[in-house]
Design brief:
With 366 residues, the chain is an alpha/beta fold. It folds into 2 domains: 4-128 and 318-361, NAD(P)-binding Rossmann-like Domain (Rossmann fold); 137-315, NAD(P)-binding Rossmann-like Domain (Rossmann fold), CATH 3.40.50.720. The chain is built from 11 helices and 19 strands. An 8-stranded mixed sheet has the order 3-2-1-4-5-6-18-19, with helices on both faces. Strands 11-10-9-12-13-15-14 form a 7-stranded mixed sheet. A two-stranded antiparallel ribbon has the order 7-8. Strand 10 (191-195), helix 7 and strand 11 (211-212) form a beta-alpha-beta unit. Helix 1 (22-30) packs parallel to helix 10 (318-336), helix 5 runs parallel beside helix 6 (176-187) and helix 5 (130-149) packs antiparallel against helix 10.
Length: 366
Amino acid sequence: MAITVGALREVADGERRVAVTPEIARKLQGKGVRVLLEHGAGVAAGFPDAAYGEIEFGDASQVLAQADLLTCVLPPSDEALGRLREGAVIVGQLRPHGAAARIVALGKRRLTAFALELLPRTTRAQAMDVLSSQAAVAGYRAMLIAAEACPKFFPMLTTAAGTIRPSRVLVIGAGVAGLQAIATARRLGAQIEGYDVRPETREQVESLGARFLDLGVSAAGSGGYARELSEDERRAQQQALAEHLKLVDVIVTTAAVPGRPAPKILSTAMVEGMKPGALIVDLAAEGGGNCELTRPGERVEHAGVTILGPLNLPAGAPLHASEMYARNVYNFVELLLREGGLAPDFADELVGKTCLTQGGEPRFQH
């Protein structure tokens, strides 16, 4: 019999994405896989049940009882895990860091779970990299939020009432989210700068038409992430950055490392030195924020500066975010399929290093 791949309607507050889109459902069917979705699973993302064609639908209980492989955007609830058929496989963003209770719940049902956040950052893994695809959505939306909240126009405007100068925008962190934020600010007509402690990002920042802000501190690391700065380096960076921030209208911060608290880059004193009406959009709010004053999910006013800490930005553009996410998931699931069945090769680096539990036994080392 064909294996069954299932997906539920996401139930986390504000979550509108879906792990299986109509495009991916058809691709799975083309592989001889049976697809079973919960009624309404894709509605919030812009995919009504009718868009899936001949795909089967059922209630959550039916999906959990029949799925050999369950795909998800965010971790299923403990209740859902307890009802999932024993020995099944889960693929999705499972938030493996600090997930001791979830790992216990996976063990009780002897589930094999793959947390896509753990994928090695290699060329071969790019097509499965959910962190990158969703970060691109977050960077785009962060800049739109900044443009909406900024008390100034982003572009230069020449009007009968005079010429209005463009806003000065600084993006801190030139990863996927930061680069997408830079590109979006450029499209909106802002005067844009990008900063990163990794000097190798200069070329990428400049290729988008932005100026690279060089503060004289390098923290080139491994695996695509920056190394931790020494105390002297951090002090020099902070001093140079504080002076520059006095000129900036909008800051979007994007510095984050999965599983670790976001680095504090903007101190209270630095915020107090900024011009009245300045705006900070802290994309690292879920990890505690890059700014000392950030409150996740809230708007803070301090010394005339506004600090926003938006959460789960990809869910705000659910259709395209879901399309990219579902393609990532499909590309990973292909690694698990062999001759119409599930046969994960744990010797494969992408499979082995992404595995959170195997048959209920923990494999992830914190």
